[in-house]
Write a structure and sequence with these properties.
The structure holds 2 protein chains of 2 kinds. Chain A contains 9 helices and 2 strands; from the N terminus they run αααααααββαα. Chain A is mainly alpha-helical. The longest helix of chain B has about 45 residues, at about 5-50. Chain B has helices at about 5-50, 60-70, 140-145, 175-205; strands spanning about 70-75, 80-85, 90-100, 105-110, 120-125, 150. In chain B, about 40% of the residues lie in helices and about 20% in strands. Chain B is built from 4 helices and 6 strands; from the N terminus they run ααβββββαβα. Chain B is globular and about 75 Å long. Chain B starts with 6 loop residues before the first helix and ends with a helix. Classes of the chains: A mainly alpha, B alpha+beta. The interface between A and B is medium-sized, with 23 and 21 residues.
């Protein structure tokens, strides 16, 4: 069991990472990564939604009529997203404001439906739950990495605390959307060069196929 | 043709019922808190247009400042607000503005000096403009332009004009012409009504 969990996490975090391997969830990865705090909250929200959606889909998988399973998945996912949205509005209004429409857009995040359809539909509940956490964590890992560089170079701070001192000239470029594209591109490049793929093959030099 | 079964429909109905119940109860638990947060953000806006915003974001501090400085009054059925200074004298009138912007209704408030010749500040309470483009009307760099600009209360229309017009008071947002024009239109329309009707009634009080 331990080995299995470890395997699920290696896949979700690195070898089959939803963002830089499956290229899913790019929209929000670009949008909320100008500050570490926003990325962290978005990541936690996604881990919550992915894991619970996968769990629920997996529990219901034997009773769900096959041809309406997508509809069922969407319903389950949106319910959890609304819960996240309400909780943020009630207890973290500032964060809710900062994330704006992106919390609602978690519904359309392909990672969640991808995991429900590919994994939870064919695996037992506990495995699916862990797989959801792993995929959500993989997404958070990428977001935090991108946000780390964007906030550091764009604002000279980390989690809002100034680290580069007064003389640092902010790279405005990093705060703006193009900065996210460049960071994501570089990250995918690095990942393709150094992190082995799912099949255990060494990554092809120069970014693979 | 495939045989029709009710099972999928029943399944969907039951599942929807379960989730609606869960969401409704969570909503019921948090609704008071959310309303409180919205109230707080509204009070913050009122203090912002009066330029009385404290450094703290504490709810109790903002609430007591609001109680001290803002008073709701009814002028011929129009609800407007008075801004009071520390001595309790009226130093501003706060007028709600509302109208259709690019994607939906825009609501805001404008603070005017008692002689109606100066705009003291503007804030937008709610709107649904494009984030990053029209949504930038929420940014301080746009709103701060409205501090202490002169308007002509007798103008009738075109109270607010954008630069580069020689008489322009503020800059529009580049890349968000639609929203900028909507803000100008809503501002001018609401001011026209206020100056011609509510102002007279206020003077006769």
């Amino acid at each position: 069991m331990i080995k299995k969990i470890k395997n699920i996490f290696t896949l979700g975090l690195l070898k089959d990472n939803p963002v830089f391997r499956q290229i899913l969830g790019i929209c929000s990865a670009l949008a909320v990564t100008n500050l570490l705090m926003n990325s962290l909250v978005m990541g936690i929200g996604l881990i919550f939604v992915t894991s619970l959606s996968s769990l629920t889909v997996s529990i219901l998988r034997k009773y769900t009529p096959k041809h309406i399973r997508m509809m069922v998945q969407t319903l389950i996912i949106s319910a959890y997203v609304i819960i996240v949205d309400i909780v943020l509005k009630a207890y973290f209004p500032a964060m809710s404001e900062a994330l704006g429409p992106y919390v609602g857009l978690i519904i359309t995040n392909c990672i969640i439906m991808g995991r429900c359809e590919v994994y939870a539909q064919n695996n037992p509940p506990l495995d699916s739950f862990i797989d959801g956490i792993a995929s959500g964590a993989g997404y958070s890992l990428v977001l935090l990495t991108i946000a780390f560089f964007r906030e550091l170079l764009g604002f000279g701070s980390l989690f809002g605390i100034n680290v580069l001192g007064e003389n640092w000239v902010n790279w405005v470029f990093m705060i703006m959307p193009p900065g996210a594209f460049f960071m994501l591109g570089i990250l995918i490049w690095v990942a393709n060069t150094y992190i082995p793929t799912k099949d255990g093959k060494a990554p092809a030099a120069g970014g693979g196929q | 043709m495939k045989k029709f079964t009710v099972k999928p429909i029943l399944f969907m109905v039951v599942l929807t019922l379960i989730y609606t119940t869960i969401l409704a109860s969570i909503n019921a638990i948090t609704v008071d808190r959310i309303r409180l947060n919205e109230r707080l953000s509204e009070q913050t806006s009122f203090l912002y247009v009066l330029d009385l915003l404290p450094d703290t974001q504490e709810a109790s501090a903002i609430n007591s400042l609001y109680e001290q400085h803002v008073r709701e009054i009814d002028v011929n059925g129009e609800i407007i607000f008075e801004g009071l200074n520390d001595e309790g004298e009226v130093f501003a009138y706060i007028v709600p503005i509302v109208g259709g912007a690019v994607w939906g209704e825009l609501q805001g408030i404008v603070a005017l000096s008692p002689d109606f010749e100066t705009v003291l500040g503007i804030d937008f309470l709610s709107h649904s403009e494009t984030p990053g483009l029209g949504g930038r009307i929420d940014e301080l760099s746009f709103k701060e332009q409205f501090r202490d600009i002169e308007i002509d209360p007798e103008a009738g229309s075109d109270f607010l004009v954008y630069r580069p017009n020689p008489d322009g008071q503020v800059d529009a947002i580049s890349g968000a012409t639609g929203t900028s024009n909507a803000v100008r239109r809503i501002f001018n329309d609401n001011m026209a009504v206020f100056m011609s009707e509510t102002r007279e009634a206020l003077a006769n009080d």
